[in-house]
Amino acid sequence: MGLIDGFEHIVRDNEPLAHYTWFRLGGEAEYFAEPTTVEELADVVKRFREADQPIRLIGGGSNLLIRDKGVKGLVIHLSAPAFGGISVKDNIVKAGSGAKLGHVISTAVREGLGGLETLVGIPGTIGGALHTNATAHSGDVGQWTRAARVMTRSGEILSRTRDELSFAYRESSLDELVILDAEFELEREDPAELTKLVFDRA
Questions:
Q1: Residue 186, pLDDT above cutoff 80
Q2: What angle, 0 to 180 degrees and rounded to 10, lies between the N-to-C axes of helices 101-110 and 191-201?
Q3: Which residues are bridge partners to 171 per DSSP?
Q4: Has 110 been annotated as catalytic?
C-alpha cells in the first residue's frame, strides 16, 4: 500500500508551499494534506506516523519561512470548514484552530464579549495564536482560554482544561501535533464600546 492510497482526495504530493505563506516564498511539501473532517485528519496522521514520516502543520503562514529545498514528509493544512467554525454560548466563544483570529475577535465584539479585542491586528489563525500565546496591548490569548482540544502525534484526541494549560510570554504548553479547537471565557461588555476600542487599535 502506498502512503497516500485511499487519501487521494485529501493528499497531494509535491505541493508548492509558497502559496500558503505571507511572503510567498519556499519550496514544495513532499506530501500535503487538507483533511475535511477530524476523522480524516486522525487517519492520515496515523498512516504517516506508522510509516515514520515527519508531520508538520501550516496555519495562516503569517509567521513562517520555508526553505527553498522544500519540506520532507507530510504538511497538514486545516483549511476545511470543519476546522474553522466559530460559535457563541453565553459568555463562551468556541473556535476551531483554522478560524482566523480576526474573525473570532469580530464575532466576540459583535456579541458584546470583551477580552480578545486587545489582539486586533494580529494575523493568523486561532491555532497559531494559541501555540504562540499571541500577545498585544498587555493582553494575551492565554488569559481567556478555558479549554482546548488537541490531537497527539499518534492521532489520539485529548481535551485540556484550564488547569492543564500554561501560558507564558509568546509560548504555551499546547505542543501536541494539532490544536483542534478551543473555548474562550470572555466578559460581558457594551458592543459599541468594544467596537470603538477595536477601531482605535486597528
A1: yes
A2: 150
A3: 168
A4: no
**How far apart are alpha carbons 101 and 75 in whole angstroms?**
21
| Interval 56-107: pLDDT, tens | 999 887 777 788 899 999 999 999 999 999 999 999 999 999 999 999 999 9
Which pairs with CB-CB distance under 8 Å and at least 24 residues apart come from 108-113?
A: 108/184, 108/186, 108/194, 109/191, 109/194, 109/195, 109/198, 110/191, 111/191, 112/188, 112/189, 112/190, 112/191, 112/194, 113/88, 113/186, 113/187, 113/188, 113/189, 113/194
- The matching CATH number, chosen from 3.30.565.10, 3.30.43.10, 3.90.79.10, 3.40.190.150, for 11-77 is 3.30.43.10
What lies within 8 Å, CB to CB, of 162 at 6+ separation is 145, 146, 147
Residue type, 99: A
Q: CB–CB of 33/10 below 8 Å?
A: yes
Task: Exactly one of 67, 110, 170, 201 is catalytic; name it.
Answer: 170
What does the DSSP 8-state code read for residue 35? -
Is domain 84-201 given the CATH code 3.40.50.970 in the classification? no
Q: What is the mean pLDDT of the chain?
A: 93
